[in-house]
Amino acid sequence: MPFDFDAVIHKQYDILPLDPSLIKTTGEQKPQILWVGCSDSLVLETLTLDVQPEEIFVHRNLGNVVSNGDLSSESAVAWSVDLLKVKHIVVCGHYGCSLTKEKDPKALYGWSKDITKLHKLNDEFLELSDRKVDETSREHRLEEVYTLAETDWLAKQPNVKAAIRERGLQTHAFIYDKDSNTCVRLVEKAKGGKPEI
Asked: Coiled-coil ranges per the record (predicted)?
C-alpha cells in the first residue's frame, strides 16, 4: 500500500521537545520498543529515552524506510509486533539525511522512489503556500513530513493496526538534530487543530 501523497504533503503537525520519560521503562530485559532509524543518524537510541538497552529492538537502514517492500524491514516489524509484542514503534528520522537530499532515484536503485516524489510535492506545496523558506528549512520540512508518512504507513499495516486496536500499541515519529544533539517529537494535529498527544 503506497503513501497517500496528497495527504502526506498536507500534514499539519507540531514539533515538541522529547521528554526522555515519554515511554516508561519496564525494568525488564525484554524489548518493548521497535526503533526504526537511519543507518547514518548517529543517534543513540538508548540515550534518547530513559529505558534499558534491552527494552529497544533496533532496525536501521538507509533513510529509516519501512514502506518500500524491503524484506528486512518487513521482517523486523513482523518480529517485533507479532512475536515480541512491543508496546511502541518509534520511527526516527534526522535532519541532513543523505537519502532525503538525493533527488536522483536512479542513484539509489529505487530505494528512494517515494522520497523523490515527496521532494517535488514539498517544493510545490511551499511555493503555493507563499512561505519564504531557505534550503535548510525546506529540507527539514521534507524530513519531518517523510518521517510522519512512514509512521502513518506503519500504523495502517494489518498486524500493526490490530496491535493498536487490541493491545494499545503506540506509534511515534521522532526527528534527531545532529547540530544541537537533540531529538524532538512530531505530533500530528487533530481535526480541530490541536496536537494528538
From this structure: none
